[in-house]
Amino acid sequence: MSTKTPQAIRGTQDIFGVDAEAFAFVVETFERVRKLYRFRRIEMPVFEKTEVFSRSIGETTDVVSKEMYSFLDRGDESLTLRPEFTAGIARAFITNGWQQHAPLKVATHGPLFRYERPQKGRYRQFHQLDAEIIGAAEPQADVELLVMADQLLKELGIADGVTLMLNTLGDGTSREAWRAALVDYFRAVKGELSEDSQERLEKNPLRILDSKDPRDKVFVGDAPKIDDYLSAEAQDFFGKVTSGLDAAGVAWTRAPSLVRGLDYYRHTAFEFVTDRLGAQGTVLGGGRYDGLMESLGGPPTPAVGWAAGIERLAMLVGDAGCAIADQLEAAVLVENDSGLESAIRLLSQLRATGISGEIIASGSPKKRYDKAVKLNPQAILRVNETGYYGYSMDGNNDRLLAFLKTLP
Ligand code: ATP
Ligand code: MG
Q1: Whether pLDDT at 156 is above 80
Q2: Residues near 123 by beta carbon (within 8 Å), at least 6 away in sequence
Q3: Nearest bound ligand to CA 309?
Q4: Mean pLDDT of the 317-336 span
C-alpha cells in the first residue's frame, strides 16, 4: 500500500472560507431571483447516456470532441458526466412528457465536468446556475430570461463592469446563408488559421468566430456579418427582443460576431462579459435553441436558456468586497462544566427562535471568555451550575432582546 497522501484531481477545487461564502451567496441570490420570475426548481442527474450530449451539443464542438468525461460502466454502457445542463433537461422534457407543462420555466444549479486546461476561472469540475424556458417560441421568453439575468447580476452587486453582449444567429435559412458566406471568407485564408479552425472550416465555420486562438481572431473582425443574411422574420424577432430589453431598462451591446460554442443555437445568442477576470471573462451565456429537442428525437420544441459559472460570479462578488459572513448573534458561555446541560437547552431554544448561536464549553474559564469575545457575537450569554444568569450585549438586536426577556 502506498503511504503517499492522495492528491485532489487536477482542476477540482476544495472551496472554503470567503470563497465558499461568496459561492453560497451567489446560489442563494439565484434561488431568490428565480422565484421572483416564477421559475420552478428541478434536480437533474449528474450523468447521462453519452448520446444525450453527443447528439444535442454536436460532435464538432469542443465540449463533445475533447472535453467530455465519458466512461463505460460495469454494464458496458457509455455514460458521461454532464458537461452542461441543457441537454439533460431536454432529455428529461422528452422522457417525462413535460410537454403538458409547456411553456415550462425551470431552474437548477450544480456541478458540471469538462476536461479542460485548468486555470483561474476554468476548472474540470465547475458549477453553474441554469435557467430555461421550454416550449416558448415568442421573443418575450428571451426577454424574460435576459431581464432575470440582469437582475441577478444587480442583486449580486456586480452589474457594474459586466456588459450584455447580444447577437442573433437568425432562423435556419439566415444561418445557412451566413454559414456559406463564412466558409468562402475563411477558405481564402485557410492556411493562416489555427489547426482547429482549419478543421472547423467545412464542418462548423460559425465556431471559428468563437475561437480563442489569436491566429483566428485577426480574421474575425472583417468576417461576413449575420445582418446581411437575416430574413425579415428573423429581423423582426430580434427587434422584439431588443425593444423588450429597452422597455425593461436592460443595457445591451450588439456583438455581431458573437456565436455560442454549442451547435444548437438559433436566433438570440448572448453573453454577459467582464474584463475583470482576465481571459475567463464570460460569466453568463445562453440563447435560443429551437432545434435541440428534435436532435434528441423529440417533438419540435422552441426553447431558450442560459447558464452562468458560479465560480466566476463568486470571484466578482469577492472583488466587490461584499459583506458576506453573517455576524454571530449569541455566544453561550459555559463557565463551568456543571452548566453544560442548561447551556445546551438554552442554545437549542435560541436556534429554534431563529437566532444564531455558538457554545463555548472548553478550556480554562479565562480562555472561555476570550474565545467568546473572539467570535464577535452581539451578545454573550452566561451559564453556570445554577443555569442561565445574565448577558452582556453589544449593538441592537430586538429579536434577541425579546428572547432574553422570556428567560427566568
Ligand atoms: P468558455 O468560452 O469560457 O470556455 P463556454 O462557452 O464553454 O465558456 P458555456 O458552456 O456557455 O461556456 O458555459 C456557461 C458558463 O459556465 C460560462 O460562461 C462560464 O461562466 C462557465 N464555465 C464554462 N466552462 C467553465 C469551466 N471549465 N470552469 C469554470 N466555469 C466555466
Ligand atoms: Mg468552453
Answers
A1: yes
A2: 11, 12, 13, 116, 311
A3: 1
A4: 79
Ligand 1: residues with CB < 6 A are: 84, 114, 116, 121-123, 126, 128, 261, 280, 282-285, 307-309, 311-312
Q: Which ligand is nearest to the CA of 12?
A: 1
Task: Give the rounded percent of residues in the chain with a pLDDT score beyond 70.
Answer: 98
Every domain range in the chain assigned CATH 3.40.50.800: 330-405
pLDDT band per the 50, 70, 90 thresholds, residue 320: low
Per-residue model confidence (pLDDT) at position 202: 86
Which atom in ligand 1 lies closest to the alpha carbon of residue 261? 6
Element (H, E) at 309: strand 303-309
Atom of ligand 1 nearest to the CA of 308: 15
User: Does 250 have pLDDT greater than 60?
Assistant: yes
Grid coordinates representing 5 are 497522501
Residue nearest to atom 13 of ligand 1 (CA): 307
Topology annotation, domain 17-171+231-320: BirA Bifunctional Protein; domain 2 (3.30.930)
pLDDT at 275 over 70: yes
Q: For cell 489569436, name the residue.
A: 214
Choose one of 128, 216, 283 to mutate for the ligand 1 pocket test, by most ligand atoms within 8 angstroms of C-beta: 128
pTM of the model: 0.92
Residue with cell 438554552: 346
For the 330-405 domain, the top CATH level (class) is alpha beta
The kind and range of the H/E element at 20 are: helix 18-36
- Residue 326 has a pLDDT of 75
